[in-house]
Amino acid sequence: MSSITIRVATAADLDRITVIYADAVTQGTASYELEPPSRAEMGARFDSLIAGGFPYLVAEKDGAVLGYAYAGAFRPRPAYRFIVEDSVYIAPEAKGQGVGLKLMQGLIEAAEAAGFRQIIAVIGDGRSDSASVRLHEKLGFRHSGRLEGSGFKHGRWLDTVFMQLSLNGGASTPPDPESWPERKFREGLRGK
User: Fold this and answer.
1) Strands (E), 12-169
2) What value, to the nearest 5°, has the Cα angle with vertex 179 and ends 177 and 133?
3) pLDDT score at 127
4) Are 133 and 125 in contact (CB under 8 A)?
5) How many CA atoms lie within 13 A of 71 on its CB side?
């Protein structure tokens, strides 16, 4: 029996990533999109994250992609540069097998290595018994807010839950001037 491998996503994974996300959009409530994006749109989103230097991972077993996770900018304004928002999606047939945990562990490691200070989880349909809430709690994320009735999908109102994980000392120390977010910020200033 082979094990699950976590690796950096490539453009070759986008067909499968698009299928996994389409299922999440049409069948689930984690995403507030109502129509699945096209393969071209998913490619544009992927390219933007990769060009920005953000981590994007897939879980693979026996050559099949079972899920993916990435971190992206939480908000576009520069003071938010040390915070990323995570996203994780698992193929229906792979749920409950620890794929999400492995992906998130890899994503946390990658975000920490880049010098980020916080990971924010913005969880759609954030019921306390949701798999995503339980996964983030297991990884040490703390609850940091709830927007009640913030989404309407599949005929019902959904709450959005915010969870947060501190990395690299969080807000207790100044940012590392050599961290990726700070270097990218300084490069942007020089380019103006």
Assistant:
1) 56-61, 64-73, 83-90, 118-124, 142-153, 156-166
2) 130
3) 84
4) no
5) 29
